[in-house]
Write a structure and sequence with these properties.
The complex is a heterodimer of chains A (501) and B (444).
Chain A (H helix, E strand, L loop, with lengths): L1 H28 L1 H5 L6 H7 L6 E2 L5 E7 L6 E4 L7 H4 L2 E2 L3 E2 L2 H4 L1 H4 L4 H9 L10 E4 L3 H11 L4 E6 L6 E7 L4 H4 L4 H13 L8 H4 L9 H10 L10 E4 L1 E2 L8 E2 L6 E3 L1 H6 L3 H23 L25 E3 L8 E2 L2 H8 L9 H12 L3 E3 L4 E5 L5 E4 L4 E4 L3 H17 L11 E10 L6 E11 L7 E11 L4 H21 L1
Parallel strand pairs in A: 1-6
Antiparallel strand pairs in A: 1-2, 2-3, 4-5, 6-16, 7-8, 7-21, 9-12, 10-11, 13-14, 15-18, 16-17, 19-20, 20-21
Helix pairs in contact in A: 8-18, 12-14, 12-17, 14-15
Chain B lengths: L4 H31 L6 H22 L7 H19 L1 H24 L4 H5 L1 H13 L17 E3 L2 E3 L1 H26 L1 E4 L2 E4 L1 H20 L3 H19 L2 H21 L1 H11 L10 H13 L22 H34 L3 H25 L17 H23 L9 H5 L5
The chains are: A alpha+beta (501), B mainly alpha (444).
Chain lengths: 501, 444
């Protein structure tokens, strides 16, 4: 029987060896993958029992902080400014994970990024928890002005420094208070989050970089840039005919000017009054599909801006307007299957959509000599002694257009403020350029998104701020709407940036 | 070859001191980890634990001086480590587990004292067998005890509830060993040829079928998959060791497969176990929760573990009983989990070594059966917790919280100690074993 006992022992040993091998798989080989599973809360639980760094604004206001508390976890994340920065700073909740800066810079805040780990090796006996403070480029004072100026109207405000891409303010209404949804008590947090998600106004949606709108006439800046870059438009020619409307080839549907007005002329004149007939004709006949598509791409349409916030969305411009059907009139770009669609797209209607961030970047491109700097919210990461660990490296995202074209557009946009639809944007002593927009929603009664994009700064220099404002679903569809509704908000923000110096 | 008795006992004493230090340190560390302070009761605790261990050691010195020196230290290590984890998870349960440890060690001593010769049990085989069957079926008696989590395995006597199945396994191991000693020649030689296959006589298959039916009854009416499986594996293994006929293994496996298939077809809870074994992430917050959380605990432990008392407990239902191995893995890592696995491998090794050393066929088969019970049960639950196997709810011997399990395993180790002592005391020449069949009435 002893032989069989040995075989029994061998069989049991094989079982235990298999168990040992399996343990290696679960505990070592697959461990990282298991730890990273979204429903695995262990990493988060550990982090809630450790200190986490602050998030502060460029003007030194505390935006996110971890307080030591009694209870399930040692720390509770709090947001002293409530709803003001909810869409930027995000929230850090046990039940729902992290969003916004809390997510993109979570490793720095937890002291877990490569920078902090290297420091940990260098100073292994440091008693103090070395977690990072994340300082943003956003200013709380400017952000507050944006919030107050927009008020209780659904809409977005984005202000950034065209020279660096640093975001100065990024507000959209409605927002939400991240404190209750980040409560350590998961029942409380869950109830608040459910209520927010059930709200049809979507307060958790960061409209500034996660929602697309018809850009309306603000897109005419891109159309003008396409004409200039293609060499088919300059400040003297062509002079578009004075007309009430423009009817593209292949359709009988006319594109009318606002309020049935008559307009036409050269670039500065048609941009100042936002002449639909002229820009539709410029896009459809003067420039054509290839030039328009290429220019939209150069300005960043079709690509997600590389902003350091999660889940940003791209803006879009049609990629195709069909086959070329005929040469069309003398000197025109030709007639294509969807030339009527191109005419609509050239004035920011039809199949064009853009985030407020993207339109602010259009203004920034004009302001910064054609180069769009990568937008970002991080200024620098600091250690617990307040010393700089890492800054943001500014870099060009897109070369949207040439310096010459940018200069021409800049003059034209300044003209919109001095002589056109954006007179409300004028700021004493500063050079301000702007373009209004009224994106018609095609509803009855007529409603529209009121837009403005602008840049401003001391005369002659590179403008210090670029702004985009959209106020959603305003009554009426007159081109005056953008100037009347959106311009005062943009001006208030520009003045706040100027005060901040 | 064998060590003299005194040296064996000195080895055991030394190992026990080592184990006492390990458990004491682990207890202090676990308290430091979970509350950042040394527990006030660390000294009395160590005193009581060491006192119990010394009692076990003294009992072995007096009652089984030639016993294997590894068996008791290994049991003490697992028991002590289990206690540390239970104390770290739930103080109230820790008090109860401490009391059960006392009862367990008392049962260990009592078993050594009463069973002075293994043969005593052989003579009582039918009584023991009957007791085993009654114990197995006791929970099914009306009003015996509550069904907990669908399993009807409890019997309540006054304030104390216990699981008679834990003791039934020991009784049945005794009975099967004795039965096979009586019949193994017949079972091994009586064959019927069907073509090239040599099968045992149908009437000798009856015990196998009875065992199978018992397992099915346990599974169906008590809903105790683990015990049913253990019981069946015990029977099959001991039968094979006794007879050497692979046909029993083949047929047993076939019967097992049929039973498993039947259970899978008939019972939703068996289907759930299998489904959650294949993919617990299809319902990670519901039926797969336990398995998923167990996997996360093990992964979180990694190689070195979080440290005693520093894991994130409270996420796995039944963390003190069936799933305690997941907590061990989380806090002691692969290193600690491997140590526990190794302790069981050593226990199994020493048990089978005792079986191979002793001449008495009953003692041999008994040691095989008991070792198989211990080894397979530990493998089933460690494999279930880690998702190597479908989950069968059994305890991890010595480590899990639970009085019945702890006491019965101490009795089991006492019987192995008795076998190993007897095997070392009566070294019989290898040759004499061959004379046994001749004198037992072979044809002349």
């Amino acid at each position: 029987m002893n032989g069989r006992i040995r075989r029994l022992g061998a069989a049991l040993l094989v079982c235990y060896l298999a168990l040992f091998g399996w343990l290696n798989r679960v505990m070592v080989l697959d461990a990282a993958q298991l730890n990273a599973r979204p429903d695995n809360r262990r990493a988060v639980e550990r982090d809630f029992n450790r200190p986490r760094g602050d998030v502060v604004s460029a003007d030194g206001v505390l935006l996110a902080h971890s307080e030591e508390v009694e209870g399930r976890f040692r720390y509770q994340r709090t947001y002293p400014t409530g709803d003001l920065f909810a869409h930027v700073v995000g929230s850090y909740a046990f039940s729902f994970g992290a969003d916004g800066v809390e997510r993109t810079y979570g490793d720095d805040l937890a002291g877990r990024s490569a920078d902090f780990q290297l420091r940990g090796f260098a100073d292994p006996f440091s008693e103090e928890a070395d977690v990072g403070t994340v300082a943003l480029t956003l200013r709380a004072d400017v952000q507050r002005v944006a919030r107050d100026a927009l008020g209780a109207r659904e809409g977005s405000v984005v202000a950034l420094d065209p020279r660096t891409g640093g975001i100065l303010a990024m507000w959209s209404f409605p927002s939400y208070d991240p404190n209750p949804t980040s409560a350590n008590d998961t029942l409380v947090a869950g109830a608040f989050r459910e209520a927010l998600d059930a709200n049809p106004d979507k307060p958790r949606l960061a409209r500034t970089y996660r929602e697309r709108f018809f850009p309306g006439s603000t897109f005419k800046v891109v159309t003008a840039a396409a004409g200039l870059d293609a060499g088919r438009v300059d400040e003297a020619a062509p002079a578009y005919p004075s007309a009430r409307s423009y009817t593209p080839p292949l359709t009988t549907k006319a594109i009318a000017n606002f309020g049935g007005s008559t307009c036409g002329g050269t670039l500065a004149a048609i941009l100042a009054v936002s002449c639909n007939s002229a820009f539709a004709q410029m896009g459809a006949e003067t420039i054509g599909p290839d030039g328009m598509i290429a220019e939209a791409e150069d300005f960043g349409f079709g690509e997600t801006p590389p902003i350091d916030l999660p889940q940003a969305v791209s803006s879009s411009f049609p990629a195709d307007f069909g086959r070329r059907l005929s040469d069309g009139p003398e000197g025109s770009a030709g007639v294509f299957e969807n030339t009527p669609g191109l005419a609509q797209a050239a004035i920011g209607q039809g199949d064009v959509s853009a985030t407020p961030l993207q339109m602010a970047l259009v203004a920034a491109a004009v302001a910064n000599g054609g180069a769009i700097m990568a937008p970002h919210v991080l200024d620098e990461v600091r250690d617990h002694r307040g010393e700089r660990v890492r800054g943001h490296a500014d870099e060009v995202w897109r070369t949207a257009t040439s310096p010459e074209t940018a200069a021409t557009l800049r003059r034209a946009m300044v003209g919109v403020v001095t002589d056109g639809t954006a007179r409300a944007m004028a700021v004493d002593g500063w050079e301000v350029g702007a373009k209004t927009g009224t994106a018609q929603l095609g509803t009855v009664p007529p409603r529209s998104h009121a837009w403005i994009i602008a840049f401003a700064g001391p005369p002659g220099g590179v403008p210090e701020v670029a702004v985009a404002v959209v106020v959603e679903g305003q009554e009426g569809a007159s081109e005056q709407t953008g100037g009347r509704v959106a311009a005062p908000i943009a001006r208030a923000v520009v003045e706040a940036v100027r005060r901040a110096g | 070859m064998s060590l003299p008795a005194a040296l064996r006992r000195r080895t055991e004493a030394g190992l026990l001191v080592l184990v006492g230090l390990v458990v004491g340190f682990a207890y202090a560390l676990a308290s430091l980890g979970s509350s950042a302070s040394l527990p006030a009761d660390v000294v009395p605790f160590l005193g009581v634990v060491l006192g119990l261990f010394v009692a076990a050691h003294v009992a072995v010195r007096r009652l089984a001086p030639r016993a294997d020196p590894l068996l008791v230290p290994l049991a003490v290590l697992l028991n002590g480590l289990g206690y540390v984890f239970i104390a770290r998870l739930d103080e109230e349960l820790a008090g109860q587990q401490a009391a059960w440890t006392g009862v367990g060690v008392a049962a260990f001593v009592a078993t050594l004292a009463v069973v002075r010769r293994v043969r005593v049990l052989e003579r009582l085989r039918y009584t023991v067998g009957l007791v085993g069957v009654l114990l197995l079926l006791a929970p099914l008696a009306p009003g015996a005890g509550p069904a907990i989590n669908g399993s009807k395995i409890w019997v309540r006597i006054g304030p104390v509830g216990f699981q008679p199945g834990e003791f039934a396994k020991l009784a049945l191991a005794v009975f099967i060993a004795a039965y096979l000693v009586e019949r193994r020649e017949l079972l091994a030689t009586a064959v019927r040829r069907i073509g090239p296959v040599r099968l045992p006589e149908p009437r000798h298959l009856a015990p196998l079928l009875v065992a199978w039916l018992f397992a099915l009854v346990v599974m169906m009416f008590e809903r105790d998959l683990g015990s049913a499986l253990l019981f069946f594996v015990l029977f099959l293994t001991v039968t094979w060791v006794a007879t050497g006929r692979a046909a029993y293994l083949v047929m047993g496996t076939g019967l097992f497969a049929a039973g498993a298939l039947l259970a899978w077809r008939l019972f939703s809870h068996v289907q759930v176990r299998v489904d959650m074994w294949l993919d617990p992430w299809q319902d990670p917050t519901g039926r797969g929760y336990q398995i998923v959380q167990s996997a996360y605990a093990l992964a979180w432990g990694g190689v070195g573990g979080t440290g005693l008392g520093l894991g994130i407990d409270g996420r796995i239902p039944y963390q003190e009983t069936d799933f305690i191995f997941a907590i061990v893995g989380e806090e002691l890592g692969l290193v600690g989990a491997t140590a526990v696995v190794a302790a069981f491998v050593l226990l199994v090794g020493r048990g089978l070594h005792a079986a191979s050393r002793i001449e008495d066929p009953f003692a041999k088969l008994l040691a095989c059966g008991l070792t198989t019970l211990l080894g397979v049960q530990a493998f089933l639950i460690m494999g279930g917790v880690t998702r190597l196997l479908p989950l069968t709810g059994v305890t991890l011997p010595f480590v899990s919280y639970g009085g019945s399990s702890l006491v019965s395993n101490w009795v089991l180790v006492a019987l192995l100690v008795r076998v190993s002592d007897q095997g070392a005391t009566e070294p019989v020449a290898e040759a004499s074993a061959q004379q046994v069949p001749a004198t037992a009435g072979g044809p002349r």
